[in-house]
Amino acid sequence: xxxxxxxxxxxxxxxxxxxxxxxxxxxxxxxxxxxxxxxxxxxxxxxxxxxxxxxxxxxxxxxxxxxxxxxxxxxxxxxxxxxxxxxxxxxxxxxxxxxxxxxxxxxxxxxxxxxxxxxxxxxxxxx
Length: 127
Fold this sequence. Notes:
This protein is of the alpha+beta class. Helix content is 39%, strand content 28%. The chain has helices spanning 46-52, 58-73, 76-79, 85-94, 114-125, and strands at 5-14, 24-32, 37-42, 101-111. The model has no long low-confidence stretch (mean pLDDT 92).
């Protein structure tokens, strides 16, 4: 059995109309420094997005979330210009912003298997 280690995660959400403040959870990003792990899991329900805003750019939402997932999985040398590694990338992804695709607050946890917990949290908080 692997030792338990701390991790951080944030729910990725789409806010179709920023002015209304309504959001839909569409994924998660999870960072575990001790395991040098950073990944994102995405699950987008297009019908739910269109229920809030029939004119939403669903293709653009998919593109933005795929870019986040790709960034999480990229080589650290490519993603980190300033030497901050995966933690720096996680910080950039979770920084507050007023856009349609956002990360919620960062939450802590402990895990023996970051990849399994990423899927567990996706099932619990998004699906």
